[in-house]
Write a structure and sequence with these properties.
Blueprint (H helix, E strand, L loop, with lengths): L5 E3 L11 E6 L9 E5 L11 H13 L8 H6 L13 H9 L2 H13 L9 E6 L5 E4 L6 H14 L12 E6 L8 H6 L7 E4 L4 H10 L1 H9 L6 E8 L5 E7 L5 H12 L10 E8 L2
Antiparallel strand pairs: 1-3, 2-3, 4-5, 4-6, 6-7, 8-9, 8-10
Amino acid sequence: MPTQIMPFRCFFSMLPPNELKRQYHRPQTHAKAEFLVFALNHKTKSFILSDMKKWICALVLWGMGMVSTLDVSQAKQANEFYEYPTGSVSVSQVYELLNAHRASLRNCHKVYLDQIPGAFDSLVLEFTLNPSGRVIRFQNHEGSQAKQEGLACLKAIIKNLHFPQPEMGLATLRWSSDLDLISDEQSLKDQPLSRNSVRELHYLPQKLISANLEMYMPYYKQCLVSFKQVAQVQLSWQVESSGNITQFQANFEPYNESLAQCLAQVTEKQQYPSGFETSPATRIIRIK
């Protein structure tokens, strides 16, 4: 008997036992989230779908009118901790933890510098902690292959550490190597880590950016309805510590300067709180 695949809403308690073999669900975002569960006939012993096959199945079901539109780009941008605010963590406790691993952390920098003899370059790594004190994200840094290897060395150490739990939200930290203050091999192990090596960063919560964007959505749509040949735009900008918006960019095809100016005017009208680190923002707007 051929495998039967049936779309269901995520009412797991209603599924008969032994029928659910594999599920796919899209994480909840500020927009509407659709959920799909692929339930298999109980006679099927195994059923494996690759990510590509899952999306193909979803598109087929959508074409049959069985499910609503899935926004692939938003699904990729969705984050398990999207709803969390910017919290805080004990920097002194983080310092003590990293200081206990100072020799290994400094060695990552040393190995990098050994590959660029006669030169010196700093090594800095930003990472974000979830409410349990586990690293969930590293900030991407550009650089040479040698530098990327040094950063990968740092990540391998830091991702396995259990940091103190942040208070009320996520915490972002920056570790800066103090190898320039080390005079010899013995100091590499014995000299305490510089207090300036650990800094907490407070970025503007992404949910706050999205909420602000939603309030201005009618005005974005007014810009777009005048250019019906453009169905999707990608916007990016930075929110400075003052709350002002800079480095706005609008990417879409076919490009139109008037539309870009209209979108920029709407974005620059938005107001954000001050006091946060310069925070990047990227959003996709579609006209359906």
